[in-house]
Amino acid sequence: MLDFPIWKRLSFWAITLVLALLAIPSIAMLSGSDVPEAFEGYEVNLGLDLAGGSHILLEGETEAVQRERLETMEESVRDALGDAEPPIRIGDVSTANGRLSFMLANPADVDRARELLTPLMNGQGLVREWDLSVLDGNRMVLTPTEEGLETAVDDAMEATVDVIRRRIDELGTREPTILRQGDDRIVVQVPGLEDPEQLKNLLGETAQLEFKLVDANALPSDVAQGIANPGSEIVPYSEDSDFAGQFEAVRRLGGIRGDSLTGAQQSFDAQTNEPVVTIQFDQEGGQRFAVLSTENVGRRFAIILDGAVISAPNFNEPILSGSAQISGGFTTETANNLAIQLRSGALQVPLTIIEERTVGPDLGRDSIVAGAIAMGIGSLLVIGLMIASYGRFGVYATIALGLNVLMVLGIMAFMNTTLTLPGIAGFVLTVGAAVDANVLINERIREERRRGRRVVAAVENGYKEASRAIYDANVTNFIAGVLLFLFGSGPVRGFAVVLIIGLFTSVFTAVTLTRMWVAGWLRGKRPSDINI
């Protein structure tokens, strides 16, 4: 009981003091004071309900996933049948009613076409994504399965969450909360955001970039009326373009998508000094772009962003460098936003903002003050009760309580976790729960003294016997905290974080530190009796 080697005492004090020092910047920030320069960057993050910020609820347009799957399948079918030996010619292609159907020029090719298309039915996974049927002898119909569509939507929404997180990280914000809600909704909470409009602009743009050849055979009169040749489609010019209000006819298939980009930066045109966006393709995308530009020198191609043409320049020469430049009447800010969107990737699902609210920092400040007052009053009452009930041992419990609060803040700052309003409630709860262990220990020591045990034996048995109940209770609380963290979201997780950290620190301070202090006092004073 009295055996605490010097190395053990030093290590316990080192752990305590380091974690307590890490709490200094968080205390300064929460109190509204300046954070000491030496501790900058180690303060705890504040959640949306404390720091203010933006809350946005987004809904995905899952119909776009089905349209894109149809377009991708059509291109895959054309490639598979066109590369056959001899090639299988098709015509009368339709994507009506969410199905892909086409006629075979030669009915005798049905079996060969079925064999070539079968590997496409399962896509990249084990789920059967398409059903293939033959009508009227030479019309093949590909119908997406419900299971395949659900899997595609789920994968697209998960990918969209990752893209949103990368875009928000580009803003330099800390600890955003990004969660799926149901099948097609995403909740985004960004604490401390100074420019909510920039966030809305970043999240509202899909950033689907495409390069498609302009249909040189399209008649201007037909284009103006929205009439496209077979295999082409009509795309409007962007509202920010010099040709706003006009349309362009482009080839529907055979272009290049922006998912092969590896980088995008805002820069300036060397000749006009206008803001532009410079993009770089990966190896495969660069090769495809080189082939596209080499085979179509002198022809125009459209740069399409989110279904609108931003420019339609000529291929004056082959572009073999794997990079290109996008211009379209950008300002420096809009060019930088587009570069962020392209770097972080295109949203797999177009999103619509269906709910938005902004929390001001004043409300969070009021919550911090109210929480501090509640914790202060609770602490004073607990301290008074502990000292009145247990004397010197109550003083030890009080000191352990203060160190416990500091250590929780220090660990949260070190782990870069977020403090929310429920987290403050967790702190208030910790004030009462942290002394539970000392109450059990002190009551056990009293009981041992009533049985006639000597002081040292009573204290030793008190800590030993009470520790079993303390560990059992904290293990059950730890399991509850882990479950709250795993299955909860947002504020519930904030409460769970404080609870879990508080369990470890309270056991360390209430059992280990107080035992070390009591052992030092007993070893130095050798009292014949104790007032407890």
UniProtKB/TrEMBL annotation:
It is a multi-pass membrane protein. It holds the Pfam family SecDF_P1_head. The chain crosses the membrane at residues 368-388, 395-415, 421-441, 469-488, 494-518. The keyword Transmembrane applies. InterPro entries: Acrflvin-R (IPR001036), SecD (IPR005791), SecD/SecF_arch_bac (IPR022813), SecD/SecF_CS (IPR022646), SecD_1st (IPR048631), SecD_SecF_C (IPR048634), SecD_SecF_C_bact (IPR055344), SecDF_P1_head (IPR054384). SUPFAM superfamilies: Multidrug efflux transporter AcrB transmembrane domain. Residues 157-215 form the Protein translocase subunit SecDF P1 domain. Gene3D superfamilies: 3.30.1360.200, 3.30.70.3400, Multidrug efflux transporter AcrB transmembrane domain (1.20.1640.10). Belongs to the SecD/SecF family. SecD subfamily. Part of the Sec protein translocase complex. Interacts with the SecYEG preprotein conducting channel. SecDF uses the proton motive force (PMF) to complete protein translocation after the ATP-dependent function of SecA. Forms a complex with SecF. Part of the essential Sec protein translocation apparatus which comprises SecA, SecYEG and auxiliary proteins SecDF-YajC and YidC. This is Protein translocase subunit SecD. The gene is secD.
